[in-house]
Amino acid sequence: MKAALLTLLFCLAGPAAAAKGDDSVWWNGIWIAEGTLFSVEVAVEDGRVEVRQMESLGFQWSSSNASVSGASLLLEVEYAGVSGIIEARLEEPGRAVVFARSCLPDYMVVCVLARGRQAVFRKAAK
């Protein structure tokens, strides 16, 4: 269970910048990791992307430099001495697959657990 929670934690995180167009229609809202209570709120407004912790299961993390380009959201995240780039891809409206694009240092437990894994997030109904 702890490994799954760490993987989810490393799959999505905090505040950032740079979006374009009307991507907010697809991304704005509360997103919940399937099978968990882990949730975040994504807000895209005036060219900025912000991801707020809603329920982080007690883990403390930070992020920066997020951007949205159509169906993809990228952001940098740091947790427990590990840094990486997370990508979320919309598979369909209200469903995104999230995975670590990079994770350093790669020998850290969080990186080992996240390697080759993905999490599915669903947008909560309003």
Description:
- The chain is globular and about 40 Å long.
- An eight-stranded antiparallel sheet has the order 3-2-1-8-7-6-5-4.
- Helices cover 14% and strands 50% of the residues.
- The N terminus is likely disordered.
- It contains three helices and eight strands; from the N terminus they run H-H-E-E-E-E-E-E-E-H-E.
- It has one domain: Lipocalin (Beta Barrel), CATH 2.40.128.
Q: How many strand segments?
A: 8
- How are the strands of the largest sheet arranged? 3-2-1-8-7-6-5-4
Order of helices and strands: HHEEEEEEEHE
Q: Give the fraction of residues assigned to helices.
A: 10-25%
Query: What class, by secondary structure content?
Result: mainly beta
pLDDT average, as an integer?
82
**Unreliable residue stretches:** 1-21
Described by strand count, sense and barrel closure, the largest sheet is: 8 strands, antiparallel
Q: Tell me what the CATH architecture is.
A: Beta Barrel
Q: According to CATH, what is the class?
A: Mainly Beta
CATH topology type? Lipocalin
Rg measurement, Å:
13 Å
- What is the helix tally? 3
Strand portion: over 45%
Brief description of this entry?
This protein is mainly beta and 126 residues long. The chain has helices at residues 2-9, 24-27, 109-114; strands at residues 29-33, 39-45, 48-55, 62-69, 72-79, 82-92, 95-104, 118-123.
Write the layout of secondary structure elements.
Layout: H1 2-9, H2 24-27, E1 29-33, E2 39-45, E3 48-55, E4 62-69, E5 72-79, E6 82-92, E7 95-104, H3 109-114, E8 118-123
Antiparallel strand pairs: 1-2, 1-8, 2-3, 4-5, 5-6, 6-7, 7-8
